[in-house]
Amino acid sequence: LAIDWGRGFFWMTTSDEESAEQADFVVIGAGAIGGFVGVALHCAGFRVRFLVRQESLSAETEVLSRGLTALCSTDATFRQSISRDEVPQVFTGRSECLRNCRCVLVATKRTANTAVKAQLTDAGVCCPVVFLQNGLRVREELGAVAFEVVESVVSFNVVRDRVASTVTMSQTMDTAVLVLDGKCPASKSIAASLVRTPITTKVDEDFRAVQCGKLLLNMTNAVNALSGVGIGPMLMEKDYRLVLAASIVEAQEVFKADGVAPKAPSGKDAFMLRWFVTLLRSPQIVFSLAVGRQLRGRGEGRTSMSQDLLERKPETEVLFLNGEVVRLGHARGIPTPVNTKLVQMVQEAEAARNGCPMLSGRELVAACRVGQWQSSL
């Protein structure tokens, strides 16, 4: 199976010219998002290769022995897999697979993009490269490259269990949406091919607005990482909610000054984007009634930033989320004290390498100097 991105159609071939290293999609990054999307593409009939570092490949003992399975926390019947027998053909440490592929999906953290750019450049990649990453300005930060950069917004959450060798969608499958930048020539053809997967893919011309909308929803990351508790328990404590609300309000003011009206990535996000701050500041019973269903399947789940701190990784994506708000605020003359403090505390936790700081909601309120009028709600 191969794909012509320029004309947007599929054809079958069994010629010897298709070597074992040729692929329709090469996925760089076999974590939660990359793993789920890669399994979905594989099960849809595409020729997929996961490109991982040789040292990482040897460390994937559970994948090598069990394969990789995609699940959904809200649907016990959903199950898609790359079997153990298929792993040697699907997982590779050889960058040669990049040279003949039709499309590359980058599912690493933003902190790895310098290395990813070098890898793609060294391999002579000239096909479209979709970045399944958080934050803004991916194309701008990469600079001049020979390949087409397709930015995207991933509006779904996946948790990887390395021991069980599973990647689990932590929301209903019908709410899993991937949005591609409508200004990129390859976006429509890529979206057309992804119709065959359970992930809804959209193309949006007003893409920066969608990115900003997703960034507002991603503000949960830093507060969750500093709390050290699951997303559900965190949001059920009013002080955590007040800090989160304050960080979002700063971001909203910054985007307004930048001339951007944030747009929801999906229908399920539209309600949250419009009312999230109000709900975060509302009494407990109101918040529970309004948001309880949205948290279905995510109760004990953690944000990726929280997982990074727990795994003692040297860097999180805080500079690409809260840090982006601080950067834009500085450029537009908008003060961002709460986000500045959150960035500082997450970076201190990164340096300490002791996991999540386990700060209480009250401690975060005090550290970020969230107004006492909010704490009394």
Task: Give a topology summary.
Elements: E1 2-4, E2 9-11, E3 25-28, H1 32-43, E4 48-51, H2 54-59, H3 61-66, E5 68-72, E6 75-82, H4 87-90, E7 91-92, E8 103-106, H5 113-122, E9 129-131, H6 138-142, E10 149-155, E11 158-161, E12 166-169, E13 177-181, H7 187-194, E14 200-204, H8 207-218, H9 220-227, H10 231-235, H11 238-257, H12 267-280, H13 284-291, H14 304-310, H15 322-332, H16 337-352, H17 361-368, H18 372-375
Parallel strand pairs: 3-4, 3-8, 4-7, 5-12, 8-9, 9-10, 13-14
Antiparallel strand pairs: 1-2, 5-6, 10-13, 11-12
Helix pairs in contact: 9-14, 9-16, 11-12, 11-15, 11-17, 15-16
InterPro entries: 6-PGluconate_DH-like_C_sf, 6PGD_dom2, ApbA, Ketopantoate_reductase, KPA_reductase, KPR_N, NAD(P)-bd_dom_sf
Keywords: NADP, Oxidoreductase
Organism: Noctiluca scintillans
Question: What are the defining features of this structure?
Answer:
377 residues; Rossmann fold; N-(1-d-carboxylethyl)-l-norvaline Dehydrogenase, domain 2; 2 domains; 8-stranded mixed beta sheet; globular; 2-dehydropantoate 2-reductase activity; 6-PGluconate_DH-like_C_sf
Quick structural overview:
The model is unreliable at 1-20 and 372-377 (pLDDT under 50). The protein is built from 18 helices and 14 strands.
- Low-pLDDT segments, ≥5 res: 1-20, 372-377
CATH level 3 topology of the largest domain: Rossmann fold
Please report which band the strand proportion falls in: under 5%, 5-15%, 15-25%, 25-35%, 35-45% or over 45%: 15-25%
**Shape-level CATH architecture of the largest domain:** 3-Layer(aba) Sandwich
CATH superfamily of the largest domain, called what?
A: NAD(P)-binding Rossmann-like Domain
Radius of gyration: 21 Å
Described by strand count, sense and barrel closure, the largest sheet is:
8 strands, mixed
Quantity of strands, as a count: 14
Give the N-to-C terminal Cα separation: 58 Å
Cα shape: globular
Largest sheet, spatial ordering of strands = 7-4-3-8-9-10-13-14
